[in-house]
Amino acid sequence: AEFFRLPFSPSAFRRAVEEGLRGISEEAEARLRGTLEVWGEEGPAETRLVTHSAHLRGTDEDQREGVRLIRAPFARSSGSPLLAFKTTNYFENSYVRQWARLQGYDDALFFNERAEATETTTANLFFIRGRNLVTSPVSAGLLPGIARGVVLSCAKGHGLVPEERPVTAADLQGADE
């Protein structure tokens, strides 16, 4: 909100999250998404926090052996400040995912202007080589999301060494997992 110069109230955010959590059973495995909606003709005049919850699905059986990826039909700019934020503007991702599926793939892998792999249209990118869990750095032009951070912080507890470095297509082809 600060980056985009949007009005934001931490207390209103807290209330919206608490209200959203009340609608989820304590036994459920679910996610809660908070969205800051913005209105205004001449700029952000009004904002409202909206929450949406959904039960988490288990891993699809057909993805236990991986997913089929194709290179996205265009590169992303690693310098775009918008890639650092999870926004509701998914037009580019939706278009590329639909394109990949029409080609017979599960998803597409984005690369930046330096031919570094960044992420798919819907997921973070990690691979294992030896005992290293490798992923591209945020500076490659990707979302520094919560799930990405959790995976990196949990790697050591699973006997893996987290490594953030530029990832090429050749790196992916030679990965152990």
Sequence-ordered SSE layout with sheet pairings:
Elements: H1 10-22, E1 30-39, E2 46-55, E3 69-71, H2 91-102, E4 107-111, E5 117-120, E6 127-129, E7 132-135, H3 146-154, E8 161-164, H4 169-173
Parallel strand pairs: 3-4, 7-8
Antiparallel strand pairs: 1-2, 4-5, 6-7
What does this structure look like?
- Strand 6 and strand 7 form a beta hairpin.
- The protein has 4 helices and 8 strands; from the N terminus they run H-E-E-E-H-E-E-E-E-H-E-H.
- The model has no long low-confidence stretch (mean pLDDT 89).
- Helix content is 22%, strand content 24%.
DSSP summary, beta strand count: 8
Parts with pLDDT < 50 across at least 5 consecutive residues: none
Q: What portion of the residues fall into strands of 2 or more residues?
A: 15-25%
Sheet of most strands: 3 strands, mixed
Helix-strand category: alpha/beta
Helix content: 10-25%
Strand order of the largest sheet: 3-4-5
Instruction: State the distance separating the first and last CA atoms.
Output: 37 Å
For the structure shown, list the relevant keywords:
single chain; 177 residues; three-stranded mixed beta sheet; 4 helices; globular
Summary?
The chain contains four helices and eight strands. It is of the alpha/beta class and 177 residues long. The termini are far apart.
